[in-house]
Every structure is written in structure tokens, then in C-alpha cells.
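S.,

Sequence below, as promised.
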Amino acid sequence: FTVGIIHFGKSALKSLSTGIPNMDVLVATGFTAAFFYSIAGSIMYFGTPDVHKYLFYETSATIITLVLLGNVLEQRSVKRTTTAIMELSEIQAKKASKIILGKGEEVVVEVDPVNLKKGDIVLVNSGDKIPADGFIIKGYGSIDESMISGEGLPVEKIEGDPVIGGTLSTTGSLRIKITEVGEGTVLSGIIEMVKKAQQNKPAIQRLGDQVSAVFVPSVMAIALGTFFISHFAFDISMQKALMSSVAVLVISCPCAMGLATPTAIMAGIGRAAQSGILIKGGSTLEDFAKIKNIVFDKTGTLTTGKFKIKSINCYNGTDLKLVKDVLYNLELHSSHPIAKSIQEQLKNEASPIELNNLEEVKGVGVKGTGRDGNIYEAGSFRIAGKQTAEDFHSIYLLKNKVLIATVDVEDEIKYNAAETIISLKKQGIKTVLLSGDREERCRNMANTIHIETVYSEKLPDQKMDIISELNQTAPTCMVGDGINDAPALALASVGISLGNATQAAIQSSQIVLLRGDDLLIINHALQISKHTYLTIKQNLFWAFFYNVVAIPIAAMGLLNPMVGALAMAFSDVIVIGNSIRLKSKKISY
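The prediction came back faster than expected:
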């Protein structure tokens, strides 16, 4: 009884102070009434043959034990999302190579990034993390900025370009002048956004609490009415009227109602886990069942992260076969992610040709000289000069400084992405694409997989604004996998990340899909959530039905307490059995 008072009593009093009694008020009322009813019965009927009819100590203990057990089992499935802050902090660089100018010479000193100041110059080599925000004053290379944009392709950087602390230098040697440190950096801003998103995320009232908000006051009113009507209207003794009044509270003991939600949730979580869906907490199942908007990140979520050639555009009468041959043989000597994808795709189409004087210019491209003396170059828009204004192509191929071809590369779409989107739309769910990638790429993908609403070139804070707007219209789910998605995942009604996502994304979400390559599993998770929510409503119906029938009979003094206890136990069996059925119930998706 003491355990019950400490655990459920505090929660019940807190909810009463808000004016909206929750399920814990129902639980506390039930076991308290049973306990004091038993004490009263023990005193009033001590030594009489009928004393056992008024002893319900075991009922009080059963209520506390069963409901507390349900809460414990549910809590064991919850992984706290506050560790997302820790994971984001781990992204920050652990050291910085600070350049100190001495008497006619430079000295490189390793320092802690927290000791950097605005205006300091740092050296960043290939494989190093950039210690703070700044801009390049010397050098060029490629920077992996996926934590901000979510895009897997490194960004080419030259002198004067800005860089972001926490991003990774994949190629080149850079000298960077620091412009922001500490809380002023972009990464610190992301961490702060996740904190605020977790704090501001609205708590959705659970169905059991909504029922108890009506049921508890009703039971209290009936119990009081029983006492006053019995004693003053029918002239029943105060002792019997009081016992009948308390009997109403005992009969309404919420064993079944208290088990209705946790048993269904545990069955639903177990069913989901069998399909590779990890759900953090039972309320997520209820929340996900009500989702009306699902927002998808692009790269790594709807795509595989593997790049392929979308199109090759030839100019000045250049033969396509020659373009493929030159492109393949040049890219064999580049370590760029796009180069590796082209090597893989053209290995069975291109012929080997001899190229001499091969040279890879980091951050620009690769070039070589053919046997006929022609100089070929393949690289970014920088090598195209003023020959074209189209800066959106992935690769530009030059022959003797003249543009002969452009190549468009796209991220491979997951095989069942379109099927998943169509299935969700049939259920009346609005699908949205939200990405940091360019508008043209996002539009092309959206058209391919039938997503109508597109937001492109969005930074983490802008993603949060969009999720917040959608949340105001209807419960919204966010599906993402990157560090830049973490704030939006934390703010959404339900955040979903993939098993191979960054730890920051996983810790900021409520659902983790272990089979991230199969997007249809999102619909499966939705169906499990809906069936779990349906099971909860069925359980509450049967528990509530029992009380609706039993309470009036008890109020009239016609229900034997022992029969009432048996009926209450039977209602528990119905609720538990219905929840267990969820484990084997056929759920199509």
C-alpha cells in the first residue's frame, strides 16, 4: 500500500492539481478504497461469520502489483532520448592544430578546440575535423558537410569559402581563420535546437487518461450519491450506507482498466520488434497511430547512398563512346565518391585508353594526356570556366580546354520508395520531402516517387520551422537519418530513424527501423500502431462495460462483494487475452 501511495499517489495529486485526473487517479482511488473498505469491514464485523465478505486487502495489493508491473514493463522498452545531446557533442573535434606566427617562422601547436578564439589560424589536413566555424585563407579541398545538408557528396572548397566546425575534411590541406567559437558555432546551434525541441514537444494525452478524466469524477459522484440517497432518502443506517458507498468504489477498482493500455502496448512493442521495428515507449504507438503527415529526408532515407549516372550530355559533336572511355579512364585515378561510382557503372561499357601525365588536383578534378596529344580534364564546375552557365551538373569533361560533355549523377532511390509513398497516401496521409539538397534534385525525386509537397535547400533550423508548422495542422512524423535531421526528429510528434543512421538521429527519434533498406516497414509500423491503439480502445471498452454494469448494482446494495471480485478478475482475463491476441493477429501492409 505504501508503494502504491508513493508511486501512484504523487502522479494522481499532480494531475488533480491541473484539473484533469489521469489513469493514476483511478488506480489510487481503487486500491485506497479497497484498503480502507477492508479496514472498516475488519472493525465493524470482527468476529462475525460474514467478516470475510468485507476483506479486500488482496484486491488492493493486486491493483498495485498488476498496474505497477505493466508500467515497469513499458518503461523497460523506453530509451531516453536525452543522450542525443551527448552524441551530438561527440561530433565536435577533439583537437585543433593552431598556427602560431613567431619570428619569421610558423609553429603548429596542438590545442583543445575550446581554447580557440576568433581570429586564430588553424591547419586542417585530410581526415581532420574542422575545429570551429571559419573560412579558408589558403588551400583547397573537399569537405563532408553531411551533418548540415544531409547530402553524402563532399563539397569542393577553395580560398574564401566558409567552413563549419565538426565537418570533415576528406581531401586537401587547408588553413582556416576562425570566425565563431563555442556557442556561436553552427554545431552548437544544432545541439541547442535539439534541447529546445525535446523540451517543447507537446505531450499528447493518452486514451486511458482521457477515459479516466470522465470516469473518475463519475464514480466519485455515484459513490457520494449512493451514501446520501441510501441514508437520507431510504433511511438506511449510516453504517450500511457508508459500506454501500465504499462498495461502489471497490467494484470500480480499475484492475482491468489499468491493464488495458500497458498490456496492449507490450504486445504491440513485441510484435514490432519481431519485424525489426524498435519502439521507444508505449505512448509512441498511440501517437503514431494518429499521424496525418509524414515528412521524409532525402539522402540516406529515400535513397541508398549509392550514386549512378543519370545522363551524359555531349557537346560539339563529341561521340558518346569517346566520352565514356575518357571519363572512365580519368576517374580511375580519382578517389572522389562520384569517381568511384562512375568507375563501377562504366567498367563494362568503356574501353581502356592510354593516358599520360595523369594528375589529380584536389578540390578541382583530374586530368591526363592521350596518345594523340589531346589533354582531357574531368571535374567540377570550376574547370568549365565561362563555357557554360549551367552550374548544376555533377561532372564537366573538357578536351583541350573546350567543354565536350557534362555528366549528371543522382543518388539511387530505394527500390520500394514509390510503393511506400503510394500506400501511405491511400490511407489519407500527406507525404512531404524535406531536404538540404538542391531544388531540382528534390523535385525530380518527388516526381519519381509521387511526393507532392517538397521543401529543398533547408538548414536544420528551417527544417524545425517546417515541422513545427505541420505539427500545428496535424500530428506529424519525421523520417530521417542524419545529424542535421536530429532537431526535426526530436520536435516531430513521432521521429523515425533508420538502423544505420547517425547516433544523434537514432537518439532523437522514438522509432528505429533496423531494416532501413525496406521503406515499406514504415507502413508496417503504422499498421501495428493502429492495431495496438484499436486493442487499447477494445480493452477500455470491456473494462468500462464491466464498471457500467457493476456500479449501479453495487449502489443498490444488490451485488455480493465476492461476486464483484470474481467479475473483476474475469474482466482482467478478457483484457489480457485481447492484448495477447495482438501478437498473432494478422496485420497486412
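Residues 520-555 form the longest helix (36 residues).

Coffee later?
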